[in-house]
Write a structure and sequence with these properties.
Low-confidence stretches: none
Number of strands: 4
Number of helices: 2
Subcellular location: Secreted
Helix content: 25-40%
Family: Belongs to the MIF family.
Shape: globular
Strand content: 15-25%
GO molecular function: cytokine activity; dopachrome isomerase activity; phenylpyruvate tautomerase activity
Structural class: alpha/beta
Mean pLDDT: 92
Strand order of the largest sheet: 2-1-3-4
Pfam families: MIF (PF01187)
Distance between the termini: 14 Å
Protein name: L-dopachrome isomerase
Radius of gyration: 14 Å
Length: 115
């Protein structure tokens, strides 16, 4: 189950949050090659963040997936998520950092209701 945790120091209202969640879900599913029904996105706004010595709008992300990650996919994901954050929250792409975790299946315990 790919999971993207996003943290930003920008306040996020529910309408913008919904747009970001939808756009990020589609992007992660498409680029990793997993169904949207397996993708989880967490968005945390108004988190105190200092980046490059300032508290200007910034964001940090962590993407965890069982497979599907690699240098070319990571680059596409990074730029796509940065573009979503820039469009929806006016966060400059130079103030966004994302860390990728490609984990082994045996290290995860996923329960999907009804499966």
């Amino acid at each position: 189950m790919p999971t993207l945790n996003l943290y930003t120091n920008v306040p996020v209202d529910t309408v913008v949050a919904s747009d970001i969640l939808k756009d990020a879900t589609k992007a992660v599913a498409k680029l990793i090659g997993k169904p949207e029904s397996y993708v989880m996105i967490l968005l945390n706004g108004s988190v105190p963040i200092a980046f490059a010595g300032t508290e200007a709008p910034a964001a940090y992300g962590e993407l965890i997936s069982i497979g599907g990650l690699g240098p070319s996919v990571n680059g596409k994901l990074s730029s796509t998520i940065a573009e979503i954050l820039e469009t929806k929250l006016s966060i400059d792409c130079s103030r966004f950092y994302i860390k990728f975790y490609d984990v082994q299946n045996e290290n995860c315990n996923v329960h999907l209701h009804g499966q």
